[in-house]
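User: Sequence in, structure out. Go.
Assistant: Echoing your sequence, followed by the structure tokens.
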Amino acid sequence: MSEVAITVDHVAQRFGSTEIFHDVTFDVKTGEVFVVLGGSGCGKSTLLKQMIGLRAPSAGHISVLGHDVVRERANVRQTIGVMFQSGALFGSMNLLDNIILPLSIFTDLPAAARAEIARVKLALVGLADAAYKMPAEISGGMAKRAAIARALALDPPVLFLDEPSAGLDPITSAGLDRLILNLRDTLGSTFVVVTHELQSILAIADRCVMLDRAARGMIALGVPKELQTQSQDATVRAFFNREPL
């Protein structure tokens, strides 16, 4: 796990005179689960948008598998899959058709092949029996799994998951954590996960970066359990040990 899949190099984001963060720098290694964490308003979602090419950084640059996310956006989008926080499933389509959609847009495969691939992806996330259910008929946890299946449709080497555990009960959240690790181990995919859920962070992250609103940037980078026990930063210690400042 030594090759670099993603490089974030001295990245900043400003909105007018308001600086959200500056000088954010880290690498994501191929095949690891890398978590972006921090409190509300620290810029986690903004950084995610930068990394998937939806927002250009105010300064610095980001590359995914050697492609600059701003200058080579089309190339980047062919190598990544994204699960948005809400799941963003199309309510008028059943789960199978939601997974088929990117295959219809980006491939020339015949309909039967697209459907078969979609079924395989649903099976990977434990939804083989839910192919014809509508999004309104499934639980929040199932919707998150279906969204991951859609992100996997084109076999991207890098997947971005935005708050996958948000709104889920502890048991469902733990099942989703296990799914992420199983997919990483089975497919060899690289995962970037944005979350503030401490139990999930400790369960799935190989490494993490912590952003902080007051510091307007990153205040920690490393292995979560090492940060929990060894960090000299009071905010980092408070976060990882669920202690008030």
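User: And one key feature?
Assistant: The first strand starts at residue 4 and ends at 15.
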